[in-house]
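Hi R.,

Here's the chain you asked about this morning:
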Amino acid sequence: MTTEVQAVESTSPDTQTRRRKILCKQELIVMSLQNFYSSRKDLPEIMELLQGTSAISLRLIDWFVTNYAKRHSIGYLLEGQEFMVYNSYKNQLKAYSKKLFDPFCRRERIMFSLPGTEQFVTTVGKLNFFRWAVEKQIIEYLKTNYATVETEMNTHMKQLSRSRSTRTTTASSDSSASASKQKRVRTAFQTTPVQTVCRRDVEIKVGFD
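And the predicted structure, written out as tokens:
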């Protein structure tokens, strides 16, 4: 019985083992990312995307895949098959989670280096996202349709801003109206005439026949 217990305990991964497995998964992704980016002939252009100096902003790319592509069901032929942008984006999120698939540097940062470039700070999620965007020709699509996508994004942002402003103004007006009503009630209460009761002593004589 003791032997069996020891065997079970020896096959149970401890905390450090589980941690090493998690790190190994991320390291494998980093290695595959280095292989991908190192083989690209358009690396200077990709570096502009990764470092946020490209004419195509990160906000536009993110809005395109999360909103525009969904709203307009954007799809095109890719390697002889129909490629749907939003569906692919959702599948990538399911496979990697937001931590390992995100165009913004919102997670744990790493130092990343490529041939002919200096080390730079980024995240695995950002590198992974742009590998997908480059492989699936999303960047090429945005180059061709940049003006259309940007115009709709700006219009949407303005409408959203006006909507928020209207809600804020309405809430402020309601608050002011409520405060004014309470003030009127207090004023009316304070100005209500006070009724006084006068007490007088009266002498009463009672006679008995």
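The chain has a mean pLDDT of 81.

Let me know if you need anything else.
M.
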